[in-house]
Structure formats: C-alpha cells, structure tokens
Amino acid sequence: EAGVAQSPRYKIIEKRQSVAFWCNPISGHATLYWYQQILGQGPKLLIQFQNNGVVDDSQLPKDRFSAERLKGVDSTLKIQPAKLEDSAVYLCASSFTPSGYNTDTQYFGPGTRLTVL
Amino acid sequence: QKEVEQDPGPLSVPEGAIVSLNCTYSNSAFQYFMWYRQYSRKGPELLMYTYSSGNKEDGRFTAQVDKSSKYISLFIRDSQPSDSATYLCAMSGANNLFFGTGTRLTVIP
Description:
Chain A is mainly β and 117 residues long. Helix content of chain A is 0%, strand content 47%. Chain A has strands at 5-7, 10-13, 19-24, 31-37, 44-50, 53-56, 65-68, 75-79, 88-95, 107-108, 112-116. In chain A, strand 4 and strand 5 form a beta hairpin. The A-B interface holds A 4, 40-45, 56, 91, 93, 100-103, 105-111, 113 and B 4, 6, 8, 31-32, 41-46, 49, 88, 90, 92-102.
C-alpha cells in the first residue's frame, strides 16, 4: 500500500511570496489533515477535511493560508503572502474513516520543509 | 499552560538500556493516548495506542496511562540504535489531537 505523498519536499522562498504544497492521501482514505510542525515543537493541526468538506479549520490563519481538497482526494495548501514565522515542516496525514481522531490511525507523509527568508 | 507537556531532551542512552519517556497533560477529557515515532526528515508514525488508563505492551515497547495523575509513559526495553528518533506523545478527547513537543532519543552502539 502506497503511503501519503507530498511535494515538494523542500521549498525556500522570500517573505511576502506565495507557495503551495500538494498532498495525495492513501487511496480510499476519507479524512485528510494538514499540520504545521515548527522546529522543536509537535505538529499543530491547521485543517481537517472529510471527503471534500472542511471539518475543522479553527487554527488555520485564514488571512494568509488556504486549503482545498477537490473531488475528495488530493489536497493543496497555499500560503499567500508568506511570513518569516511560517518556516516549518508542513505535514499531510490521512485516515480511513471519518470518525475523527479518537479511534482512527493517522498516516503521515514525509512533509514539506518550508524556509522563508 | 500547554495541553500537553513533554521534556524535549535530548536523551542519550547506551544500547540495551531501558528508556523511559513521559508526558503530562492538563485536560481531563483526554481518553485516547498515542505515541508516535518520527525519524529525521520523515513524518510521524504511530507506535502505540491506548484507550483510557492501563498498560499496553507490544514487543519491546510498553505504554502506560495514569489518568488520575494525568501522566503517560512509554518504555523501551533493550534499546537499539534503530530506536534513535524523536518520540511524540499525542492525545485526544472528542475531537482534536494534541501533540507534545517530542523527545529526541539517541541510542549509542
């Protein structure tokens, strides 16, 4: 079974530029998550999709971050414009059932390491 | 106060040692407790999953949950160099999953 795929693996941009990350979840997984992991910290949930609908985006900085999951499969996360504090690893995860975090294993991709200069 | 507190380490042990990793939490609604392992430049992978209080063993790994003390532990027996990674505790109640900061472990051959 193929894992969660993410691209690009690394990205370096100047502040105020735009950037987009792509995620392909495990086939058949209904729920998709985007996390931000700042160096030395644990992952923080940005947004959760169930199929192509948003379940939780309470911690997404909506003035600069946006995300979509077209057709309930792939997802993109965009930052526009980027700030220095956005430097982090952006992790995508997926889980099989839309039952939430409690009983459902999340499978993580390798992440995209973003550096904002 | 953070939802989940975890000593970031780093922790270095000789091969074969018993490793103890710990987290404390403040939210009494948490019922599901997990340990993730994260190798360098990789995403986290689920290592252990426990519901409510008690112990769970899987090979060299044992997870313990003490809800009365709001304290969870992961023990690694006969540690191996391949266990060198960052270990993240995570927990949830009804909704969001909260992660600790992670403890970086190095097992020295």
